[in-house]
Amino acid sequence: MQERKLESPTNHNDSLLARSRHAVWHPCTQMKRLETFPLVPIERGEGVWLVDCDGKRYLDGVSSWWVNLFGHGEPRIKQAIKTQLDQLEHVMLAGFTHRPVVELSERLAALTGLGHAFYGSDGASATEIALKMSAHYHKNNGKADKHRFVYLAGSYHGETIGALSVTDVPVFRSAYSSLVRDNFIAPSPDARLAGPGETARDVADAAANGLAAILAAHHEEISAVILEPLVQGAAGMAMYDPHYLTRVRALCDQYQVHLIADEIAVGFGRTGTLFGCEQAGIKPDFICVSKGITGGFLPLAAVLTTDEVYRAFYDDDVTRGFLHSHSYTGNPLACAAALAVLDIFEHDDVIAANRERAARWSKRFAGFAQHARVSHYRNTGMIWAFDVEDPRPGFAQRLYRAALEQGLLLRPIGNTVYFMPPYVMKDDEADWLVAGTTQALEAALGGQEELDDAAIA
Ligand SMILES: *Cc1c(COP(=O)(O)O)cnc(C)c1O
Question: How confident is the model at residue 12 (pLDDT cuts 50, 70, 90)?
């Protein structure tokens, strides 16, 4: 209460920022830093643009943490939520069901070949569900010792305690390591690791051989391998050869270990196919989806799994059932938004249209590969990334700030700059993205300011 008086806000926006700093604990943020680098108060969004309270526009180059697939305010998703709102806003999913959740489950089953959908409210809860379901499956099959997991170097699967136990991003994990149980870490297939004369496929094979050694030694205590198909997002958009997924699928079969595909970031078209796993022609035992599933309108996650897993829980005994519940499981409004997203994929033939967009935008973005300080320029589907050499710490913060000045929302991860634009970006907006990023890059590399490396993803 005392503190609040000290701010003495001068105008409406300052007051909103001050109130936010006092009352809202912002995610992935050192709150003290907001003393010198203020929040951006956003009033509205339209298409790829976010508009702040002073009317300044920012092109959302990262689809607001990878969720707004169709930009902001997509009218069809909005309308679907409004229609559902007049019908039923919520009912508990234990003992009850409703049309949107049934339809969504059937459609996700048809799209993935995994016929049973369990719902949560965000990505981390999907990870928790998949881990618990996998271990409980083995327990129900008389293999209670299979309760550990394998995750990849550089992996990110969320930040709840279970999800952190399969996440290898030190800045998110270290402070909580005493809370997190040990699992097995396998090498990353990140194509940037290729030595001279090596291909991405060679790196994939080497990483798969590393995984094979872990499984050979420990498969009797291993429940599942969890991975992000094709692109490890939080690792800095680490892209890899689909061959790795083929190898992992075969190894999981060989050692009777589940394969959990975390499609939370890459699902719904981001890698160029509806799901990343499709590019290796493999079927995982679990697929986790969230982020783009509602196009950024409402929180929703789902874990999809096989008949085989489902049958292991089907019994008269309650304790053999899957015991997990979230209050908002299968919320009808969120399911209606997700159904609208699937309709858009069908109606607009989004995957095919994205292929053409990606080709056009790649021509525009390719210039970054020529920049003297840029290495590992790369692209998978609707993700573009490159690494920037800057001897000083704090590049991510400097670029983030310089980009905002240019009217661009970019959030570099370490020294990796990436674009994950909304699929609806127009070509002239892509040009704006290139021009703004080029300016911001020069400003960030030329700036004198020394900053800490930001803990941002
Ligand atoms: C974002 C993300 C998560 C966690 O999702 P939240 O909704 O932030 O909890 C998990 N896995 C991957 C690959 C992600 O990108």
Answer: low
| Helix residue ranges per DSSP H, 28-122 | 63-66, 75-85, 99-112
Residue whose Cα lies nearest atom 7 of ligand 1: it is 123
Average pLDDT over residues 76-85: 98
Q: Tell the CATH superfamily of the 12-73+349-446 domain.
A: Aspartate Aminotransferase, domain 1 (3.90.1150.10)
Pocket test for ligand 1, best of 131, 156, 169 (most atoms within 8 A of CB): 156
Question: What is the layout of strands, in order, in the sheet containing 222-227?
Answer: 116-120, 301-305, 286-289, 258-262, 222-227, 148-152, 184-186
* CA nearest to 207, candidates 235, 174, 177, 165: 235
The CA dihedral of 431, 434, 435, 438, to the nearest 10 degrees, is -170
Query: pLDDT tens digits for 285-338?
Result: 999 999 999 999 999 999 999 999 999 999 999 999 999 999 999 999 999 999
Domain range 75-348, CATH architecture: 3-Layer(aba) Sandwich (3.40)
pLDDT per residue as tens digits for the range 86-143:
999 999 999 999 999 999 999 999 999 999 999 999 999 999 999 999 999 999 999 9
Which residues are annotated as part of the binding site for pyridoxal 5'-phosphate?
A: 123-124, 262, 326-327
Contact residues for 178 (Cβ-Cβ < 8 A; gap 6+): none
How far apart are alpha carbons 342 and 351 in whole angstroms? Answer: 11
The pLDDT value recorded for residue 3 is 43
Handedness of CA 344, 347, 348, 354 (dihedral sign): positive
Q: Which residues lie with the beta carbon below 6 Å from any ligand 1 atom?
A: 122-124, 127, 156-158, 228, 233, 262, 264-265, 290-291
DSSP characters over 302-334 = EEEE-HHHHHTT-SS-GGGS-----TTTT-HHH
Please, what sign has the CA dihedral across residues 84, 88, 90, 91?
negative
Q: For residue 106, what pLDDT is reported?
A: 98
User: What is the residue extent of each domain of the chain?
Assistant: 12-73+349-446, 75-348
Rounded Cα gap, residues 402 and 447, in angstroms: 9
Of 183, 315, 324, the closest CA to residue 257 belongs to 183
| Rounded CA separation 91/328 (Å) | 8
For the entire predicted model, the pTM comes to: 0.95
Give the orientation angle of helix 427-446 with respect to helix 350-365, to 10 degrees. 40
Q: Is residue 168 over pLDDT 70?
A: yes
